[in-house]
Structure prediction request, 326 residues.
Amino acid sequence: QRIDKMSGEVVDSNPYSRLMALQRMGIVKDYEQIRNKTVAVVGMGGVGSVAAEMLARCGIGRLLMFDYDHVELANMNRLFFRPEQCGMTKTDAAAQTLAGINPDVALESYTMNITTLEGFEAFKTCLTVAGCPADGRSNGGGKDGSNDGSGGSGRDGDGSALQRAADAVSRVDLVLSCVDNYEARMTINQVCLELGQTWMESGVSEDAVSGHIQVVAPGRTACFACVPPLVVASGIDERTLKREGVCAASLPTTMGIIAGLLVQNTLKYLLSFGQVTQYLGYSSLKDFFPTMDIKPNPGCINLLCGQRQAEWAVGAAERAVAAAAA
Ligand code: ATP
Ligand code: ZN
Prediction:
């Protein structure tokens, strides 16, 4: 117990009591539920690492962290990582820091590239099977490896292949996409469609002054393949857009704000309070925050998305009947 020098009152030094106050004030019905929640953060860069820290400080039960990269001095304009962690893998460095901040969080560090063929399978396994790759680390393909692009619609075959892909059951409550490229987002989209797993996408623009977050719930909202981003729609290869030697801008402010919006939406989703926003944009130059709902595309190129849309429609009809009967 600590005594406030000015008032002489007893100060509650337990961080959990500040979180539990949300319950006393009627914002959250059962805050302690957060101890039973598992979140996977994919991409531990400027947004993902900060999001992971916020979740650890909020008392999340289990945190899975995925990234193929190492901490570099060039990352020091962002929050979270420290110079002495240079050379460590981002997921191991994060696990080290977060274990110190909140030892109650079960941390799983996966250094892997999720877009290679092996990486795709390893990533999916990690989301479905507890204790996957032996000691909580893996090497699902090197950083330079790349798959045949089948993370998207290429995996779709006949109906039975679709069924096999859709059989596994997820062990996480939410996946947060904090990666910085289209290929990795399409991989997360595919794995989450296969698992029927809700995920949240996040992004910060190359000029560092705007960003967005978006909820993707298979069958209920647009998936990442439903509405292709402009770059893809126009047929320009993303890799040719990233000019060699010209680095993208990044600001700790914009990344911190997007991480904050992402984790706020995550808390609302996990603990069922307030309104979970499906799409929230942030344009810092004019402080503009657009929101919108994006409906799934019945003609989505990903056939599994179509299957999820049909399942959602059946479920919605059943829920309506049940509600009418009650
Ligand atoms: P910069 O590109 O400016 O050097 P960065 O690579 O750290 O920075 P961020 O936007 O801060 O980019 O973070 C994105 C993170 O996502 C990075 O840590 C990156 O390693 C990770 N990432 C991107 N693609 C993959 C992938 N296929 N598998 C695993 N991690 C990925
Ligand atoms: Zn779709």
